[in-house]
């Protein structure tokens, strides 16, 4: 499991803290982007969708294992961008 806390500031008054929970060694692996303060799961990827994230290069196992705050921040931003694209465009970033 990866537990990562990333802070994104909205304006000057609100900070949003995100966690990435990666359960890749489970029988049914999944990855979650979670808003830390509320515990709300922003998005959960599993099965084919999770595999597509890895196959596309959008995320990697190395990024999930790093302790570099810079790399982890990039990972969270990539996942937020993916969620936004899925919601606004109706498709994934890695699909043409």
How is this structure best summarized?
The protein has helices at 47-56, 61-65, 69-89; strands at residues 5-10, 14-23, 30-35, 40-46. With 96 residues, it is of the alpha+beta class.
What does this structure look like?
The protein is an alpha+beta fold and about 100 residues long. Helices cover about 40% and strands about 30% of the residues. It is built from 3 helices and 4 strands; from the N terminus they run E-E-E-E-H-H-H. The protein has a 4-stranded antiparallel sheet with strand order 1-2-3-4. It starts with a strand and ends in a 7-residue tail after the last helix. The N terminus is likely disordered.
Give the termini distance in whole angstroms. 31 Å
Biggest β-sheet: count, sense, barrel?
4 strands, antiparallel
Number of helices: 3
Q: What is the 3D form?
A: globular
The share of residues in extended strands comes to 25-35%
Strand order, main sheet: write it out: 1-2-3-4
**Would you list the SSEs in sequence order as H and E?**
EEEEHHH
Q: What's the total count of β strands?
A: 4
Please give the share of residues in helix. 25-40%
Average pLDDT rating: 80
- Seen as an oligomer or otherwise, the chain set is single chain
Radius of gyration: 13 Å
List unreliable stretches of 5+ residues: 1-5
SS content category: alpha+beta
């Amino acid at each position: 499991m990866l537990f990562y806390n990333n802070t994104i500031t909205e304006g000057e008054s609100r900070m949003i803290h995100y966690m990435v929970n990666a359960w890749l060694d489970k029988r049914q692996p999944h990855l979650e982007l979670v808003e830390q303060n509320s515990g709300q799961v922003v998005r959960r990827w599993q099965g084919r969708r999770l595999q597509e994230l890895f196959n596309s290069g959008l995320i990697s196992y190395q990024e999930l294992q790093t302790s570099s705050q810079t790399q982890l921040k990039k990972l969270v931003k990539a996942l937020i961008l993916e969620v936004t694209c899925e919601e606004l465009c109706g498709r994934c970033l890695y699909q043409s």
